[in-house]
């Protein structure tokens, strides 16, 4: 039932809301034993390649749930926050299964250290860095963002990170680079329920000016803690004016390119999931209306909140799309 021929986020939530739990659990059979896998990525080769700005590269290994130090940010909403218990148990992370509760049960399998990160494509110097250098590269800011999924739920979440632009400047993209693509971690050994029918690894991408917008957050934590694995540890992006699927989790590679990159949902169903995916109440890019949303809370509230253009971030991002037909570039 879950293994649809034409994958769709919408179909999934619809069936998850009407299908009894035991039916969902049928596909969650015996799990394979946990196998540490990051070692195969050649961590030893990274030892000598740290960010040059760090004189004393930190050696701390952060366990999930460890507190993070972050300074308050000007990019912050006052809205009441979604409870952490909700934000960390109602997730989309398809590598761990298609049910919203799967990631919180299964993502513990992921080993987030060591975690090499590749910088590839049109950059001055392709290289591999390690996650702890990235984490300590700039002071972390705590930013409370509105976060909206194309499936019409929304949350208010405090994320901890710094602007992706800071990291992109470190990468030194060539002038020819027009896009940056994100690749998520992928390993069947720790993702035994990864559904077929998708072109794994999970990939997403942004136009360079979108990626350089100060709102785009390179994210290491939420609610003042290291990201739970199900929320994308050890590093993800958060792009608050776009639907949630643009915000790739567990990133292992940043690839700079001059062509609009392939993205997982666009490849799976390009009619529904466009490259831009800006939150747009006037355009029903999924099979249902995007005009309203339901704030995820402890209760199942109706979809009674009017969705805002660009998720309410129009002042900061509308100019990126000046002159573009947003129905064509959905
Ligand atoms: N690697 C990866 N990243 C992903 C996804 C995924 O399935 N795999 N799902 C996306 C979707 S559809 C959404 S809505 C958000 C959900 O983020 P959250 O679970 O932290 O709320 O993650 C996005 N990033
Ligand atoms: Mo989503």
TrEMBL record:
Annotated protein name in UniProt: Protein-methionine-sulfoxide reductase catalytic subunit MsrP
Family: Belongs to the MsrP family.
GO biological process: protein repair
Assembly and interaction partners: Heterodimer of a catalytic subunit (MsrP) and a heme-binding subunit (MsrQ).
UniProt-recorded Gene Ontology molecular function terms: metal ion binding; molybdopterin cofactor binding; oxidoreductase activity, acting on a sulfur group of donors, quinone or similar compound as acceptor
Binding site for Mo-molybdopterin: 91, 94-95, 149, 184, 231, 236, 247-249
Enzyme Commission code(s) on record: 1.8.5.-
Domain Oxidoreductase molybdopterin-binding: 111-265
Native organism: Tunturiibacter lichenicola
PTMs per UniProt: Predicted to be exported by the Tat system. The position of the signal peptide cleavage has not been experimentally proven.
